[in-house]
Amino acid sequence: MEFDLAQTDHLLLTTKQIRKRMDMSRAVPRETLLECIDIASRAPMGSNVERNKWLIVDDADLKMAIAELYRKNAEPYFAQSEDLPADDVSERVVSSARYLSDHMHEVPAMVIPLRLDRVEGWPSGDVSGWYGSVLPGVWSFQMALRSRGIGSCWTTLHLGSEAEVGQLLGIPDTVTQVAMLPVGYYTGDSFSVTKRRPAADITFINKWGDKASNA
Ligand SMILES: Cc1cc2nc3c(=O)[nH]c(=O)nc-3n(C[C@H](O)[C@H](O)[C@H](O)COP(=O)(O)O)c2cc1C
Asked: Does any ligand 1 atom lie closer than 6 A to the CB of residue 97?
């Protein structure tokens, strides 16, 4: 089967982090989330060992409790960002992140990707293999959602209260929460491509420092 590059590149380039454009009033069916998790679970895993779990939270009281913990951790981040030199990009990110934080309890669902074990004190190669076995699936999950008109935002701020959230949701303390994705249908579909430095400027050929743009 030949891929339609225009379509696959569009998906890769425009799977954005959705905050202000999340439709808080439209529920996301659990079956759709499970379908996307099924796709995401095909992402690569070190030694092909399946030790990942997912937790969907759509109960209003639990969402409120998690949102409050999220906001507790987000506040110092927002306070700190007020001291940063303002540019267009950081202002937009902070304004959008603040919006999501303020509305976090309203999101249709929160999805927490989990992996068995804790990595404290592990050698960096093991940590890399461990995270590398769970995070590719999170991105696949975001793209599977996007293909269905559903947006999500990769967040980590609640992890400052990981233990409290774990207690609320009955997650054993031997399990790691790696992110928390608020999920909801997005409104409009005019997503711009994120501005980044060109590949030739960030890629070296054969030796550190020998930029592809100089080759
Ligand atoms: C590892 C990771 C952690 C992030 N944590 C948060 C977070 O806690 N809250 C938040 O609003 N956005 C968070 N983001 C989103 C980023 O702030 C940023 O908006 C995003 O990477 C740029 O997305 P864009 O492609 O939509 O421009 C996180 C992204 C990543 C990859």
From this structure: yes
pLDDT at 88: 66
Residue in 14, 15, 17 to alter for ligand 1 test, most ligand atoms within 8 A of Cβ: 17
For residue 130, being part of any structural domain is answered with yes
First to last CA, the chain: 35
Question: pTM for the complete prediction?
Answer: 0.95
Count of domains forming the chain = 1
- 200 in a domain, yes or no? no
Rg of the chain over CA atoms, in angstroms? Answer: 19
pLDDT, tens digit, for every residue of 16-56?
Answer: 999 999 999 999 999 999 999 999 999 999 999 999 999 99
- Give which of 76, 155, 162 is closest to 111, Cα–Cα: 155
Q: pLDDT per residue over 159-171, tens digit each?
A: 999 999 999 999 9
Please report whether residue 17 resides in a domain: yes
Range of the domain at 140: 5-190
CATH of residue 92: 3.40.109.10
- H or E segment to which residue 182 belongs: strand 181-185
pLDDT tens digits for range 130-141? 999 999 999 999
29, part of any domain: yes
- Which numbered atom of ligand 1 lies nearest the CA of 156? 8
